[in-house]
Model the fold of this input.
Amino acid sequence: MTMKRLNDRAFHILQTEVRRCLDSGAIGQVQLELALRRLEKFRLQSGTPVTEAELKEAIVDLIPTFNLKVLRQAAKLNRPPSGFWFGLKLGTAAIALSAGGIWLVNRPIPWIRYPVMQVAPFLLTPSYMAMDHNYRRAIALVEQSDQLVNQATAFEDLDLGTQKVKAAQKHLDELPAWFLGHYPGDYCRWAGCRWRFTIDEFESARKEIARLEVKLFQEKNAQTRFEQTEQALGEAVRVIRDGATGEARMNALIDWRGAIDSFNQLPESTLAGKLARTKVNAIDRDFREAVELGQ
Done:
């Protein structure tokens, strides 16, 4: 394939600068036509690219004030791409194509993945790594959630447990269930997988998360009732201590008694129920004293 001595990009840059010189009054129409004719001649010739020195020789005698930076830029654009840069571009393209291929086979598309598993399972390493990571994180978060929920000593523990359960569910959702049951032996021998990529394991983890979600739902309901009861109790105690009499005092005592009953009705299996049991005796004693003082 023959190469023009002056490519189109370089020619147009030089042509624009020549016309600018005409517009600024630096040259006349004759110099413009001669300069463009010389450049056009280079463009029609085939062979080695025109150098900066050749361009300067062809133009500067006609246009002494011609911008040398434009000459240098045109000469640079006129150089053919070097073998190094061509190789680099080719290598980059090959890497991009390879990366694109690996990305494609690791997409959650069964009819692509299954054949790859049979002939080139190593290409699915990114999928195996992601699955292993998500499963490990899900199990770790479930264990943390279980401890926070079942051994909670404050409502803040339940809030943190809720966050952990949601995070565990998110990691579990990242596992492609249809891909389970295909144990990646080579990868797991290298990475030391702690699970067998089985449906049973996956379902067990899901059931554990579901159990914790039910437990947290019960805990939250009990917590809401506990906080509402505490608020009602506090208001009743305030009314009594402010020296209320008559009907106002009677209503406050009724609310106080109702708060005691509400505390006793909270499920003992919940944190709210346990906290209520630790304080209900003292509340009941104070209630009896308040009743006796009013008699």
The chain is about 75% helix and 0% strand. The longest helix spans residues 199-241. Residues 15 and 85 are 28 Å apart (CA to CA). Confidence is low (pLDDT under 50) at residues 83-99.
